[in-house]
Amino acid sequence: MFRNMYDTDVTVWSPEGRLLQVEYAMESVKQGSACIALRSSTHSVLGALKRSVSELSSHQQKILEIDDHLGIGIAGLTADARTLAKWMRNECLNHKYVYGTSMPTGRLATDLADRHQRTTQTYVRRPYGVGLLLASFDKNGPHVFETCPSGNVYECYATAIGARSQSGRTYLEKHYESFPTCSKDDLIMHALRALVGCVAGDGELTKENGSVAVVGKDEKFTLIEGDELQPYLDRLELEGGNNNGGGGGEEEKDDDDEEEDEAKEEDAMET
Amino acid sequence: MASSGSGYDLSSSTFSPDGRIFQVEYASRAVESSGAALGLRCADGIVLCVEKPMNKKMMVTKNTPAGRRIYAVDGKTGLALAGYPGDGRQVANRAREEAANYLETYGSEIPPDVLAARLSAYVHYFTLHGALRPFGCTALLAGYDAATQRHSLHMVEPSGSCFEYYAAAAGRGRQPARTEMEKLAVNPTRAAAAAASGGAGGVGGEEGMERGQQLISVAEGVRQLAKIVYTIRDSGGNGGSGASKDGPFEIEMSWLCEKTGWKHVGVPKDVMEEAVEWAKREIEAEGEEEDEDDDEEDGMEE
Amino acid sequence: MSLSLQSGGSSSRVSASSFSATGTGIVAAANAAGNQVTTRPITTGTSVLGIKYRNGVMLAADTLVSYGSLAKYKNARRLLPVNSRTLIGASGEYSDLQSISDLLIANALEDRCTADSLYEEDNTNEECAKEVWSYLRAVMYQRRNKMNPLWNDVIVAGFQQNPDGSTSDTPFLGTVDKIGTAYEDDMLATGFGGYIALPLMREKYRPDMEEGEARALLEDCLRILFYRDCRALNRVQIAKVTKEGGVLVSEPYELDTFWDYKGYVSTKAGMGTDGGW
After folding, report:
1. What's the pTM value of the predicted model, to 2 decimals?
2. Helix, strand or coil, per DSSP, at residue B2
């Protein structure tokens, strides 16, 4: 039933020095729909693909506001993310009450990672099965952080997590050096272009399943969804960019598998 | 693996019939796959150095709390970590708490040997219970004891064992690193013996030796550590198993020494750059030398 | 030794309850739970004065700590730097001030250690004066709500912070009292100084005062307080925060006083009164 005897408890090391339960939790991040984040020197932007379970249901919220200066994008178990979001909102409120200023993102990100880590070292809880992207603008400028179930935390110029995120990441890696000078709108367009690659099969990025949020200097965290997103999607359409390469479905899939293997290696918990 | 599947290796609360605790050994194995952490106790201070493989692109590496491997515990103590970064942060946080507690209780800074002992007690506790797992990290602790005016380097391992070192290495490539370190003059006793056998005057005793010229300085230590990092990466680290783990990497270094007023701070960027340049030149020169040896050419002297 | 994994993380100090100083030498009363709480201070310092001037903030206080009406310690420092750009001064229970100072300095050390960089020049993690002041407010108010206040009125001096974390040109001066009341002003005085010195400061204050003028004004106020306040001394300290020089606290020094007024010199019996004032 199990792959081996070392993979059922978080508190058990495998003979190779791996924590399989934690690695499996990292897998659940890849089950979630894609989520990306990037920053310029003035703004941070989050982008996500929202899923709906059926035609009759609403789309799952993927981007959550934490404070005026900070928001998160999530991939993985949404309910786990909500627990963490609630805790993060509390931390930000506490900080504002006590110090009268907004929570520094770096501190929140490392505390969050510590929270992830603690679940990996005690028998009583399972690890959180969710990866988070934090996008913020604080006194040190714009920030993008990525946390994962293992308790690792990275600060990035741009990053992508979730299903088929590799193509988004490839796009970002190709362009991220030009991001610092981007305007807010340009940054949002980059986010959408990166997201398009993450859409499943021959699906399309629409105002229903797309979700973007932006935060910047003198600009509070704002969610851009639905009709407000449409102008950006129109612009994308004009560029001729709004579909996922269309026909080559089969080939595409193979690529994805390879890419995900690559991603797995990348996410191995060593530094 | 003999232990695997025996059933005695599933919990750190279980001894194997031959008296080993496999879970602790497995945890140590997690450290072995991480970038190296090195520490050197020099005549006038201590240098810490970590090798950080940069596996992800688009990472911010300057002025960020993420991805750090060297931590400040209090103003005068530094911690370098190898292994799981998440576990490492937990140990670093604990070290800060211990230091702060000690200061609050006794009104003076925690001596490095006390901190090392407390930290190893903490790490050790996680090897006792089935409901916990041992830490997958090793910590190098550099500190200065103002009372005895002595600086020291300790290493705390996943088992909770803790020793003081002249030179310590953890993580991938620690074996070749140790071999390189053994060539350096950091052990006063041995340096004294070498001086004696070399007939270079009387032996000054340990105290004299520590203050004397025989032991290397932190400035030299920085260069040597840079060289060691480049050496172990060149040789692949895993017994020369090739460059599979090689890729882009960064070096992070800190020191505490007389010059910094025994404060633990980052090694100035220009000093580090100079050290890395020197290390690369040195390795290249040695490489050429070997080549020339291979070609049975003479004339190189070293 | 607690081995809980739950402690730790920089957020732990946000819950001000982590600060629980009990058992100082203060007169205490038992509350319902049987714990002892402070009901009045014993070893006390008197007024602290603070004023903004053209390019900084200045605090002044004497160095006397009284034990009731006994002038017990004559060289006690009540103006204390808490980090490289923030200064506090406090009147009230001296042990509580020491405790507050320990707390703020421990927080500053933690901020340095958890900074984003190992290089001090890149360190942007330090709390600005307003954050220190806000934090103190939270601590004082929380303690008062536990009916166990820290018996001090504190003045915090430093500089405002720009949105990007750099130090602005605008000085900051704020106060927090023992029940958590907090406000900012251009000039502040705690203790007896609130009655004697503040009106004088209000009369003489100009926002563009030079450092010398500010210092002269504060010294005058301290001298007058020494004449009028039975718990004051002419041995004083001046401290300032400037944008360029950071925090600077003077060594204690003595103010010249003038006691040749007739009322001080002639015996009260000769003044045609009954010997009283």
Report:
1. 0.87
2. coil
